[in-house]
Amino acid sequence: MDISREELKAALQEAIMDSSPMALEDHVYHHSWIKMKIVEEQKKKAFWEGIRSKSLPAAIVAFVTAAGASAWAFLTDLFRTHWK
């Protein structure tokens, strides 16, 4: 028995659709909905990666600035009170 590729493909598709509780249109919609959700998640991930990549350097600069300001305030107060 020699079956062509197209006949085998059609037979398999028919068997799958007969055994599936979901209609073909619903199945196609389901796959498009999943693809849409995957794209949305990728966009969200890219958005938050961008936020993280921009906020981390800003947080480091803010921390160093705050530490420097605190050290400056401490030292100027120390010199004013102890070496008058």
How far is the first residue's CA from the last residue's CA?
108 Å
Largest sheet: none
The domain count comes to 1
Helix content: over 70%
Strand content: under 5%
Q: In total, how many beta strands?
A: 0
How would you summarize what this structure contains?
With 84 residues, the chain is mainly alpha-helical.
Describe the model.
88% of the residues lie in helices and 0% in strands. It has 84 residues and is mostly helical. The protein has one domain (24-82). The longest helix is centred in the middle third of the chain and has 59 residues, at 24-82. It is rod-shaped and about 105 Å long. The N and C termini lie far apart (108 Å). The model has no long low-confidence stretch (mean pLDDT 88).
